């Protein structure tokens, strides 16, 4: 029953974030909170206008009157939209400045972490049950590596696994980032859908990657790991590994319902020749298990000849059994660390693999971050230098495969990578270069 003029006067004392929030109360508040007079004042205090829109008294800095044309010739909400668009553009400009510098080893921006902080970017998961109810999990622990970020959610209030249908992963950004304070989860934000996973019959439809005394791990592509309590078969935690390549785009440019579609590569003339295969490729490989890094290395001058093309794949040999000078030791015993409010543990023989494959121009060609596991092979090492059990790790997606062979040395208690091969899909290569392998 309060007069609209009085409400507008009250609203004029609010900042932009509070004004957007109060506009969500009801339709009446929404229309009043769109008032051009309020938003023009907010816009003017934040951005220097191209033309003078106020008159100043001598020796005073307060606004005394606003240009009538700037108010009455505009539709309601015009200055609100202008302010929001200008704020988003300012944030994008800050982020773009940070991601310009590129690491020569990874081919990725050097300041990914700083860019994400500048944008106010965070991630949430939304669980939907059979009744259509959504359960939003906000709080997460972040672990940054050279080429990826690992996000861990844990809670004491997970919904029952039996009633869950889907899990959606979103990038979340404040609509109006404030560099002076952390973004509030109650403030206006926008979501960008990164991936959607189906949780119905999780234990049957996903890959079991390992277990310890308390939890069992199940993996879903791309990069999702669900930890279930062994005794109760309920969710203990959810872990996601996201590669930095195009992470900002996927986390910010999609909508709440549609994932961001990556633009196609524009091939350089004659940069792919089916007769000679691929050449001068580089690989940056990270193997880690949460807080521990087991391997971080860069491999240059990788190539593939015509004879290395078979069964729809091009083979890039990184480490060969025959060349023991390139065999690599791993630091520590492989395992994936996890934690909850009460418990923590380490699942042996599991880890996160980050692959960054660069083409001959140094452009990221195939990138992923995913949880993987080791399996004991039935064969025994025949290499003179390595007498021990052989383990294998295999990863595959629509763009290619990675095959790793490791030997465990009992004497020194360490793993050695003795074979590492990448298989890149010919379809991926043809789409990249516009050729026909």
Automatic annotation (TrEMBL):
Entry-linked SUPFAM superfamilies: F-box domain
Transmembrane segments: none
Pfam families xrefs: F-box-like
Residue span(s) of domain F-box: 1-42
InterPro entries assigned to the protein according to its UniProt record, in alphabetical order: F-box-like_dom_sf, F-box_dom
One annotated Gene Ontology cellular component of this protein: SCF ubiquitin ligase complex
PANTHER family reported in the protein's UniProt record: F-BOX ONLY PROTEIN 15 (PTHR46731)
Identification of the protein by name: FBX15 protein
Species the sequence originates in: Ibidorhyncha struthersii
